[in-house]
Amino acid sequence: MSTDPDRLFARPLDQVPDFAFNEDVVRVFPDMIKRSVPGYPTIVENLGVLAARFAQPDTALYDLGASLGAVTQALRRHVRSDGCRVIAVDNSAAMVERCRQYLNAQDSMFQELLPVQVMEADILSLQFEPASVVALNFTLQFVAPGQRLELLTRIRQALLPGGALILSEKLHFADDQEQALLNDLHLDFKRANGYSELEIAQKRSAIEHVMKPDTLETHQSRLRAAGFSKVVPWFQCLNFASLIALP
Ligand SMILES: C[S@@+](CC[C@H](N)C(=O)[O-])C[C@H]1O[C@@H](n2cnc3c(N)ncnc32)[C@H](O)[C@@H]1O
Ligand SMILES: O=C(O)C(=O)C[C@]1(C(=O)O)C=C[C@@H](O)C=C1
């Protein structure tokens, strides 16, 4: 399936609207996320590998904020436990529609993939089934900060012993020098991937009210408050990181 190059912010906009996961974003999303998130392809592929260690027979594997289902596809490629089912959830109708098309294409190319259910729903009001793996890949940062602990608590309650939550996020840093350096390096990463100063500045205005990164320390203490017993960072590239949280 072809994907358009991301030029959403290439022309000067009179007013930059708040970022939304709408049809325009869906059209360019694979290109946008690869060129904006350092380490994204490595995180997605390895998420499948990690999940294979925690997945248990006859349980649900959740991909929360699935977008176009990149993580769902990795779970289906790597997890071999009997009776597992992937549940991909997103509240953007445009994402869900295109996600279903991508997964149908995956079904037609490979045999013996895990069954998958794609739901258009708000993860904040989801009734979780007992799960062995839950992935939140760059989704929690878009949930209102005041609602993050409750969501993580409900995920923790749904997780079976031996399972895991895998949480990937853009990080903020309490130390000003560390924040400035990693932010500058992230902007260099975007420039190296062909984004202009205008695109970088307009994207920044678009996401500043809707995407609120936390520090690693905030993630760790909130995960513990939600009932997780252990938090293990397994990947960081510049200001983007991924954590394994154990029940
Ligand atoms: C940055 S994208 C996630 C990328 C995707 N997980 C991947 O690895 O390719 C964030 C996604 O979360 C979804 N989202 C944000 N808040 C949500 C909510 N409350 N319920 C369901 N989906 C949500 C958005 O629609 C968007 O598709
Ligand atoms: O931090 C930025 O500048 C980003 O563009 C990050 C980010 C993300 O982390 O989700 C924001 C929106 C898009 O979904 C793709 C990338």
Structural class computed from helices and strand pairing: alpha/beta
Q: How much strand?
A: 15-25%
The helix/strand series, from N terminus to C terminus, equals HHEHEHEEHEHHHEE
Major β-sheet strand ordering = 3-2-1-4-5-7-6
Report how far apart the termini are.
Answer: 37 Å
Count of distinct structural domains: 1
Radius of gyration: 18 Å
Helical run tally: 8
**Spatial shape:** globular
CATH superfamily caption: Vaccinia Virus protein VP39
How confident overall, as mean pLDDT? 97
Task: Please estimate the helix content.
Answer: 40-55%
Oligomer: single chain
CATH topology name, in short, is Rossmann fold
**What is the name of the CATH class?**
Alpha Beta
How many strand segments?
7
CATH architecture: 3-Layer(aba) Sandwich
InterPro entries: CmoA (IPR005271), Methyltransf_25 (IPR041698), SAM-dependent_MTases_sf (IPR029063)
Subunit structure: Homodimer.
Catalytic activity: prephenate + S-adenosyl-L-methionine = carboxy-S-adenosyl-L-methionine + 3-phenylpyruvate + H2O
EC number: 2.1.3.-
Relevant terms:
247 residues, alpha/beta, Rossmann fold, 7-stranded mixed sheet, 8 helices, 7 strands, binds S-adenosylmethionine, binds prephenic acid
Question: Which secondary structure elements does this structure contain, and how are they paired or packed?
Answer:
Elements: H1 23-36, H2 40-54, E1 60-64, H3 70-78, E2 85-90, H4 93-109, E3 116-120, E4 131-137, H5 145-158, E5 159-170, H6 176-192, H7 197-207, H8 216-225, E6 230-237, E7 240-246
Parallel strand pairs: 1-2, 1-4, 2-3, 4-5
Antiparallel strand pairs: 5-7, 6-7
Helix pairs in contact: 2-3
The structure holds S-adenosylmethionine and prephenic acid.
Prephenic acid (PRE) is lined by residues 32-33, 36-37, 138, 170, 203, 207, 211.
